[in-house]
Every structure is written in structure tokens, then in C-alpha cells.
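Retro notes, structure queue

What went well: the backlog is down to a handful. What didn't: a couple of records were mislabeled last round, so from now on we paste the full input next to the output in the thread. Example, using Glycoside hydrolase family 18 protein from Roridomyces roridus:
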Amino acid sequence: MHASLQFRYRKLDYLELQKGRLRFWSLTPAMAQLHPLAFILSALLALLVVEAVPFNSTDAAGLSPIARDFILSSRAVPTSPVWVAYFDQYISWDSLPAASSVEGFSVFALAFIYSNTLEDNAVVWATIDNDTRASIKAEYAAAGISLIVSAYGGTVSPTSDGDDPVAAANYIANFVKTYDLNGVDVDYEDFGALETAGTAVAWLTTFTKTLRGLLPQGQYILTHAPVAPWFSPNLWPDNGYLGVHAAVGSLIDWYNVQFYNQGTSEYTTCTGLINSSSSKWPNSALFQIAASGVPLNKLVIGKPAASSDASNGFMDTATLATCLGQAKALGWSAGAMTWEYPDATSAWIAAVRADSWPVGSSVPPPISTTTSSKSTTSTTTTTSRTTTTSTSTSTKTTTSPSKTSTKTSSSSTTSTTTTGANGSCSGASVWTASAVYTSGNVVTYNGALWTANQWNEDEAPGGDSGAWDRTSTCNAGLVPATAAPKA
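Corresponding output:
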């Protein structure tokens, strides 16, 4: 998938890893016994003399576990849905694209790092000066975008080449920490090792365990990017990526599944992508992979941003947006991945998310009596994509090298909640972890009324899954909200 052709001649076989420090000034017990005002003034003075310079995990070694976790919490893994773009093409030797050009994505992967060398935009990140790197990182963080490095890609075969998985993991983790990245994606494409030799699963198991030991869960992103057919059951030695998932799936945050480059007619329709794959790669569509035991919301749908970015498997943004909307309606909420920037821009991701999680659409749920409605109307043409909502209007146009298209759909949802005065949540059942809920179901939980916005099971209202919308507080009798079926 991810072949690096742009500027492979430049490598860093040896890196001088410059260590930054974050100097902490602490208050002694004697100072704590001073007058409270003196203590406060001392604390303020301490804040003024903090020396802020690049920080890495090595510098946290002498801190307490609480202090270390607090500092590293800024690296927290983004919650689903995630929106991932890879970046391998040459743009500049001394900078990255402006964060505004990839707004709408939540993860930006610099390609590539190998077992003991750097390539392409991993080289760029390492050679940028510390101040510029810190400024870029802050700009991306402010836009809600995590910066990670992608390992390997389609031009190297680490297992077949005899690379030591432990040494490779140490090298990659050291790079992530030293250059203040948010994590690593494992774009493993050693086809001979996985499909023929049967050595891939054991290698990836050791590699992933070592990486995760060095990049703790919750503090660093760790993802894999397998091709979709590797999830076909009983087709590969050690059961392919189903074997990898069985061994180390709990250590992997999500899978950036490559639903492309697998044949001209593979994964090119919503049905083939989401529900049922062809007999060539059996049981490798999205929900079929989930049926084989991989959590549905760990499966991020990967597609090329333009037809020129892959041999086959391309979908225009309108079609892909429709597919994501259909998958969401069935309970999926993992997100999408694409290869690669600069074809994958803020305009591209806005178009792709339009039917599922529109960019900028996050609004705090109402907590009082509400009546809301939403409608979307558009017309099919050959030139643009237009989406209109009764409460807001936006027009997005996207053009790829092969075609420009517009998709239009129509749907309407209305919900009403009425409060009374008897101090109860009458008419709604209490949320139960063992129950299965579908979109529109209403429950009470922790003193509030909640409405399901997708299929879910064992997903507590208010949790990270985002499966529930808070409709009202339970300070009165309530009539359950109703939702019209999705178009």
C-alpha cells in the first residue's frame, strides 16, 4: 500500500538523540509551614521559574507515578471515531503541512521508520530544529491532531529480512519518545512472512509486546494497518491477523484496515466493504471481520484519497461518505483512514465525514425540555456535493483526479421530551449493561434521560463510546423521546 517513492535516497543511519529537560521547582516541607500567604506566593514564584523545553519520557524517570502520568496524559489516545491520514510525499525538508490543511483529521502519520533507519517524512521530523518541532506539535495539538510515525510500509519485509523484533521495537519507541510523537502505526506488509512462511504472527507478537511495554497504553497510540484479506479466517498460517489479534489485540488501539489494492472489484461497493466480501477474500468485509472476534470499533476503514494513490479499491468521497453513514447506522463508530496527504486534505475529510460525523458538528446535548429536528437534502450532479440542514447550511466540493461527484440524500429525525412535575423519569426503563439497545431507545441513568444514537451493548450512557445522547435531567416526569427511522 504504502510505497515510498518520493525521496528515499536520504536516510539517517545514525541519530544523535538530543535530550530536552523539564525542570521542576518543588516546595520544601519547611515552606509549607509558613503563613498560607507566603506559601501561595512561593508557589506562584515556582511557576514563574519553570524552564519549559522539549520533554520526553526519560525525563520523567525521577517523578512520582502520579506526576509522571499527569504529564504524559497529554499523549492520551483519541477516542473513536478516529480520522487518520498518512504523509509520505515530499513537501518540505524543514516543516510539515499547516494543521489547517488537515483539519478534520485526528491522527497524522509520518511515513516511514524502519527497524534501524528512517525514511522520508520521519527524516524530516528528526532533522527539524527543536523549536520548530515544538511549534508544529503545539499547532497540531491545538487542532486536535495527534502526530505519530508509521513503521515499515510496502517496500520492506522486516521478518523475511531477519530483523530482530525486540531491537526494532526499541529503536522505534526511542524515536517516538525522543522526538515527542504521540505514538506509532505498524504498517506491516511482509506478505511472504504472513502468507507463506508462517513467521509473521510470532514476529508481530514479540514486536507489539515490546513496543507496548515501552509505549504504555493510554499514553501512546499503537495501531496496526493490515490489508483486509489478512483477516479472512483459516486462510493464512497461524490464522493471519486474526492470530495477531488473538495474541496481542488487547495491546493495539485500533486497526487501520487497508480495504484497497486487493483486486479491481474488491471492497468497491458499500455492500462489499461493509457487509459481505467476495469469495476471493472470504469474510473480510467490515462486519464479517467483527464476526470473527475483532471488536467492531477497532476496525477503521482505510481507503486511498485519490485513484492515483492505490492500484485499485478507490471510492469517490460521496460513495465513501454513504458507506460510513450506513456502517454508523449499524452500530459502527471506529472512523476512517486514508493514504495519503496531500490528496487527503481538510476538504477531503469533510466530504467523507458528511453523512456520519460531520466536521464541526459536535454540539453539547440538551439537558432540558427540547424539540429538535434535522433534515438533509441534496441533488445528484456531476460536479459538486451539497448538504443542507434546517439549522445550518454547508456546501462542500471535492475533486479527485478521476472524478468529481455529488451525492444527495434525504432524512428527517425529530425528538421531543416533555417534563412534568412529579420528580420521576416515568415511561423510561433503567439502563442495563446486559441489554442490547438500538438507535432511538430511551433509558434513565445517573439521574438523567438518555437516547441511544446507535446500536450498542454494555456501553454506559455518558461513556467514551458516545452511543448515547443526554436528553434531559430526571427532575420531572418524562415522555420518552422518539426517533424516526434513518433513511
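Agreed that this is the format going forward. Reviewer comment attached to the example: The mean pLDDT is 77.
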